[in-house]
Design goal:
The chain is of the alpha+beta class and 76 residues long. It has one domain. It contains two helices and three strands; from the N terminus they run H-E-E-E-H. Strand 2 and strand 3 form a beta hairpin. The longest helix is centred in the first third of the chain and has 14 residues. It is globular.
């Protein structure tokens, strides 16, 4: 029986997000790509001195727009 599973980001999607973060926002230092309790990218914002986690590209984009609006990539 195939029952629909709730949609969640995969580790490969989080690895791709980590690579995007490293390329687009050098002040956000990728610390780890974590699998538990759900896939997310753990980063350190070196400008604000905080550690945060992103579990989707929407999380990352929202964070950059809110905390670093001059760095928003309008061509993404």
């Amino acid at each position: 029986m195939n029952e629909a599973q709730p949609s969640s980001p995969s580790l490969s999607a989080m690895q791709a997000l980590a690579e995007r973060i490293a390329a687009e926002t050098p002040h956000l230092r990728v610390l780890d790509v974590c699998a538990y309790p759900h896939p997310y990218v753990k980063i350190k914002d070196t400008v604000n001195g905080i550690i945060v986690g992103f579990s989707s590209e929407a999380d990352y984009t929202t964070y950059v727009v809110m905390l670093h609006p001059t760095e928003v990539n309008h061509h993404a």
